[in-house]
Amino acid sequence: MNFVKKVIILIGFFFSLSVLSQNKNFLQKKGDSICSNTKEVTFCKAIDFYRNGQYDSCYAYSNKAITLSKNTTEKDFFSCILGYSAFVKGLNKKSLSSILDISEDKDYRQTKNYLLGNIYLRLGKYEEAIEAIQNWLLNSSTASVAIKKVMFHNLAVSYMHIKKYKLAKKFFDKEFQLLNLKDTSAIIKAKMDLANVYYEQYLDDEAIPLFKEAYDLSVTFTDIEMKHNASKNMAIIEKNRKNFEKSVKYFNEYVKWKDSIWNRDRIIELADKDKEVAVAQKDKEIAIQEAEIKQKEAVQRGLLFGASGLLLFIAGLGFFYRKLKKQNAIISKQKEDLNVANKTKDYLFSVVSHDLRSPINTIKRQHLKLQKQLKNKEYDAVFETNNTAIALTESTSHLLNNVLHWSLDQNNQMSFNKDVYPLKPLIEQSVFDFEHIAEAKNIELTTNLDSSLLIKVDKESLKIVLRNLLDNALKYTPEEGKIGVKTFLNNENCIIEIQDTGQGISDEQLTKIKDLEDLTIDKINRSEGVGLGMLLCQTLIKKNHGKLIINSKIGQGTSIQIVLQTVKE
């Protein structure tokens, strides 16, 4: 029943994140006071990002603000919002380190205990979580009902993990007493929590009816994620009861809801893009029709002028000839643009049909394989098959993102605004998004960034390039590997270097990648295996007046340098 435990913990985390915003008034007042007194730009930016919920930027700026802090009041505040931002982004160890750096100032005591209780629970340190939450409860008389529910829930989960089931049930009951009986979602979650307490004690007669009630409520409830969790709970219960036919039925239902979640998000995204393409195509057709109408009107006016006399006819004919030539030039330009648009559309269709057909069919085969394994009771193989399907889904999602950015760029719909930015924060924001992936693969991801470098770029397109390159580095670097990101100045150029200890690139593949630099939509040949991700990187870097330098050897890793023009202060 480990899955049910994980679901309960995740529910607790989502509750924690949803009520963190209710605990912000105290910190916002502290931050406004510090900004007003110091006028320090870094301080004020960190506080604004925190107030607006932009936790990636808050994380970067509060980290820098700590190094600029001159007293305990400033250090306590920025350690708190740094830990807060790290907690929201799932960087648990960094969050814990920052919160423990806060002094024993009584003003931070409740906030500190609240965050420590949540962080320790997430890290699986249940005794420490219990101590922090109990300390918080001693002074919780003014706390909101929402926050109390979260803390009762987390305390119960912690007791359940150390097998103190009576105390776990006690605090789940306290949470249940604070629920709004009209809140179906909360009722379902509470029933699953109590059921799990009984189930862990092998009290099946008490646990299973509660699981069934939670499942029945989820059937009539609109939340797909709730249906997804409830059906999987029932699948595991029936499997443990040896009711394998029912277990397979519930598991198929779980897979259906899981697919619904994925399909819902992708259908919305693709429908929006189809609508944009259709509108753009219709606008082009209208423009061509208007040009044709104007051409016909010009000819008619020419005939009318010709009736007034030979000389006027010749003069009028010359005038309209020149005008007609101009209109034809416009039509030719529109035709050329339409041909490029059609070639782009054909290329994108080929990418979707070629690159998506294989993974989609593979995912389908994995599901059929999973169904067969369950039917044949090959339970050890189920988890491996499921992990393979998840990996394929993530890879397909990354391909879809590249297709989206490429199509926007080719149709001139991608916003491209160059401005001067400090380079270090841009890279830190991109690296931050991959820290948890590197931590999961046990890959050492380090940075060595020059804080003095300024560049003039479109920052969003640069982020797309950095994300593609970091994703490739993580994908092809094995566990225990290293990835380093550094910046430095070389003559008048700013260099961003991403170096990994991965499997490397063969000379043949390296030649194809380097050939992408001057490749246009007219010359693309899908049969030669051109990678859309690297093609997108080459295109966006070229638009930023930069270049990519790639060096790699099989078995010795890869080094990629982004060369951009620096801006002098």
UniProtKB/TrEMBL annotation:
The keyword Ribonucleoprotein does not apply. Keywords: ATP-binding, Coiled coil, Membrane, Nucleotide-binding, Phosphoprotein, Transmembrane, Transmembrane helix. Residues 351-568 form the Histidine kinase domain. GO terms for molecular function: ATP binding. PROSITE patterns: HIS_KIN. The chain crosses the membrane at residues 302-321. Residues 279-341 form a coiled coil. It catalyses: ATP + protein L-histidine = ADP + protein N-phospho-L-histidine. Its EC number is 2.7.13.3. This is histidine kinase.
